[in-house]
Amino acid sequence: MNIQISAHNVKELRNKTGAGMMDCKKALQASEGNMEIAIETLRKKGLASADKKSTRIAAEGIIESYIHIGSRIGVLIELNCETDFVARRIEFRKLAKDLAMQIAACQNVSYLSISDIPKNLIDYETRIELAKEDIINKPNKVKDQIVKGRIDKRLKEISLLNQTFIKDPNIIIEDLIKQHIALLGENIKISRFQKFVLGENIENN
User: Fold this and answer.
1) Among its keywords, does the record have Transcription regulation (predicted)?
2) Measured distance CA(97)–CA(76) in Å, rounded
3) Tens digits of per-residue pLDDT, 25-71?
């Protein structure tokens, strides 16, 4: 059971580490309110100071490619950082390669983050869920809760940042990027990506 954590303590931890409010709250709950253990936890996860750096301009970087075995799936990704020095670091280049492999492995991923998903797509998915037979006769309040849960799950399935990292199931891609921000000391962001599937847009005659 989670212990109650005051907003004051969450704010204090955020000021000390620069991590996000929810990350700070979770760290304090896990440490049962112990500030030093919470700071250590955030540092191990690479979250400390990552959020502070995430607002800085990242205009350098690389374009990385990945071709899956059999040459039927390919990915291009633009990964940005703040300086050419970091762009040449092996850790940064390995991150870009891992991200490209992640995109190739995730069949449903089409958007970088949930905030990038168009409202008309969310509305469309919502209409489909509301019309499903397994909930059509349920009370409206229950129906709305079920639909919200299903839509939230669906949006995470098509968002890259919400994907579980294929090399470490304990973190998601957003955490992986934050870890590298902390490691390399610069803001890192994915600007764009594109996946190519052989024959995807070719109609058979």
Assistant:
1) no
2) 10
3) 888 898 888 988 888 887 776 665 566 666 666 779 999 999 998 88
**Is the CA virtual torsion 179, 183, 185, 188 positive or negative?**
negative
For 170-188, the pLDDT digits (tens) are 899 999 998 898 888 888 9
CA distance 24 to 176: 17
Q: Taking all residues of the chain, what is their mean pLDDT, rounded to a whole number?
A: 87
Q: Give the whole-angstrom CA distance, residue 45 versus residue 190.
A: 20
CATH number belonging to the domain at 60-112+159-197, selected among 3.30.950.10, 3.30.1390.20, 3.30.479.20, 3.30.160.20: 3.30.479.20
- Bridge partner residues of 172 (DSSP): 164
DSSP state of 111: B
Produce one character per residue of 145-154: b if its CB has 16 or more CB atoms within 10 Å, e if not.
Answer: ebbeebbeeb
- HSE value, Cβ hemisphere, 13 Å, CA-based, for 63: 5
Calpha distance 29→2 (Å, rounded) = 6
Question: 82 is written with which tokens?
Answer: 């703040």
Question: Please, which pLDDT band fits residue 131 given cuts at 50, 70 and 90?
Answer: confident
Q: Does the CA dihedral 126-163-170-41 come out positive or negative?
A: negative
Topology of the domain comprising 7-54 = Helicase, Ruva Protein; domain 3 (1.10.8)
